[in-house]
Automatic annotation (TrEMBL):
The gene is ycdF_1. Keywords: Oxidoreductase. SUPFAM superfamilies: NAD(P)-binding Rossmann-fold domains. The keyword Transcription regulation does not apply. Pfam families: adh_short. The keyword Membrane does not apply. It comes from the Bacteria. GO terms for molecular function: glucose 1-dehydrogenase [NAD(P)+] activity. The lineage of its organism: Bacteria, Pseudomonadati, Pseudomonadota, Betaproteobacteria, Burkholderiales. Belongs to the short-chain dehydrogenases/reductases (SDR) family. This is Glucose 1-dehydrogenase 2. It comes from Paraburkholderia domus. InterPro entries: NAD(P)-bd_dom_sf, Sc_DH/Rdtase_CS, SDR_fam.
Length: 244
């Protein structure tokens, strides 16, 4: 069983970046199933419209708002749209990301390297920055940053990705410290390898013996983090990895 039966997010509003496919879509469907109103965001309108259609088909409530997390004004507009539609924000999943293999540092294209940092790290900062005033207004909230196990060890050819996720982990802890008094919990979710468009490397297996998941396998932990009490764990990293 993949969903955490009995978890309720009724009365909560969740904003999810990168909700058009993969892990973000699976979590959007699960949060809606648990009763949350869900705002699905990504750059591709077609993909988030599909996520919303799937949620509506299962009896949930959701809207799609296109946004590019590298553009702060666009992320601010996402949160204004969410509040306009559902009257507040309680749960934010900063999930939008790219997994570009940039090559060795020596051979990487500086522009592509910076793009990874811009989407993953600056995008998460933009998302948190734009969300915080709305979470404060709600009196409590959950901010979940989608991390990666690749942040904790060097990986040849993936320096931009690893550095972006290492930065996101420090951002998670810093936000948690800054928002402790506002009952806004900030935690990192590390999914471990998941079969998505990002990890579609054809025949080449990059993950050795690690548990290769489907996006739905990330759902129970995402529900757990979204449904903790107002005074609950913060500045913590929760991982679905099965090895150090
Ligand atoms: N799959 C894994 O094994 C794995 C492991 C560890 C961590 N993660 C993390 O999990 C998250 C989701 O990854 P995934 O595997 O589900 O990848 P995915 O299937 O490629 O989905 C990525 C999502 O992010 C959106 N996105 C990308 N750039 C964006 C931008 N500039 N602004 C707004 N949205 C943007 C994409 O939509 P558009 O392109 O339409 O914008 C898409 O909806 C990422 O943060 C990734 O680093 C994944």
């Amino acid at each position: 069983m993949n969903s955490a039966e009995g978890t309720t997010l009724r009365g909560k509003v969740a904003v999810i970046t990168g909700a058009g496919r993969g892990i973000g879509r699976a979590i959007a469907l699960a949060y809606a199933k648990a009763g949350a109103d869900v705002v699905c965001s990504a750059r591709s309108g077609r993909e988030i419209d599909e996520t919303v259609a799937l949620i509506t088909a299962q009896g949930g409530r959701a809207i799609a708002i296109t946004s590019d997390v590298t553009n702060y004004e666009s992320v601010e507009a996402l949160f204004s749209g969410a509040v306009q539609a559902f009257d507040g924000v309680d749960i934010v999943l900063a999930n939008a990301g790219v997994g570009t293999v940039t090559g060795t540092v020596e051979h990487s294209d500086p522009k592509r390297w910076k793009e990874v940092i811009d989407v993953n790290l600056v995008g998460a900062f933009h998302t948190a920055r734009a969300a915080i005033p709305h979470l404060r207004r709600s009196g409590a909230g959950k901010l979940i940053l989608m991390g990666s196990g690749l942040r904790q060890r060097p990986n040849a050819n993936l320096s931009a990705y690893g550095c972006s996720k290492a930065g996101m982990w420090l951002l998670t802890q810093t936000l948690a410290l800054e928002l402790l008094d506002a009952n806004i919990s900030v935690n990192e979710l590390i999914p471990g390898p998941v079969r998505t468009a990002m990890t579609d490397f054809g025949d080449k297996c990059q993950f050795n013996e690690e548990w290769l998941k489907e996006p739905e396998d990330v759902v129970p932990l995402a529900l757990f983090l979204a449904s903790q009490p107002d005074v609950g764990p913060s500045a913590q990293s929760f991982s679905l990895m099965r090895r150090a």
